Amino acid sequence: MMTLSFPRRRLAPVLLAIAAASLVIPAIGYAHAVVFPKASTTGAYERYVLRVPNEKTSATTRVEIHFPVDVRVTGFEDVPGWQLEVQTDSAKRVVGAVWTGTLAPQRFVEFPFMAANPKSATTLVWPAFQTYADGERVEWTGAEGTKTPASATTIAAAPSSGAPAGGAPMWVPWAALGLAIVSFGLAIRRPEPRV
């Protein structure tokens, strides 16, 4: 009987590189001002969070967001070290927010707020603006795939299958991670001596 032998010592570094890349690639995708969650349900009251990293050598001193007309912002959570200015229109509807403070390089800050989602399916686009101590201003308003994209949240009807609005059930990423860890362990395990 012929057996195939795969060089396990070569497999381990390859699997390790794949696992490391899978952890790094999502982080690269979120290296800009992003509003989470990326998917929510129609008519829901949602706790949104604007996450802003500072990848420059100068401190971030001001963060501004303009709210989509389809969403109704109802409140904000205090963020230590940051002052909040709520912007409203003539009808007293909240249309934006400005936070001022200091965010050191290689840090990030999160600005939570509550909002009522629209009653029909849509995509909410969140234009954000980041100002640095040296005067530079980055406008996170571009299309998806550009250097400075605006964050977007997909609003859809609540699924009946137990899956979130984004599609796959919440347990799928965790199951994939578990499977990857088990596979990696099996790949680097030493073969038992044959008798």
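Second entry:
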Amino acid sequence: MLKITLLIICAFIMGSIPVGMLVAKAKGVDLKRVGSGNIGATNVLRSLGKGPAALTLLGDMLKGTLAVALGRYFGLGTFYEGIIGLSAILGHNFSVFLGFRGGKGVATSLGVFILYSPRTALITFVIWMAVVITTKYSSLGALISFGLLPLNIILFDSKDKLPVALLVTLFILIRHTDNIQRLMKGTERRIGERV
């Protein structure tokens, strides 16, 4: 149990690394002071362009993938792999380096499922891309694609992964409360919109 606890803590700290802020800082930009103030790839895209946004996206995804890889390396089984992955997502959302504030967890969540459930990760990404290309709203893409994640787990993977999928969907919905309100009001910024 000590090993599991240490891995959960390690995943939380790893998830807490604010990749977007580090990328922006290297460009001389304080990401919390531009655009939406969010540390994720969408705000980096608006504020700094495609290259830095791609780097942020990959870095945030990697945090989730590495967390699950840790659980798998130590042979902890599906349940604890998922818990360790969730810890990385929570670390991203409530970073110890940012006073327990952070991002929305979309890229890190996708990174978790790349290893935890590769098929559903691909489906989630394709749905996200389809919604973004159609509507230009990153937040709507996240809400729809991760909203469908539990169903995709039921259809295309083992049901013992469903609890983790449900929690990830819940986290995404909670972190996107403001986006949902802006979408309903028609004031949400479109992806790629420069600040």
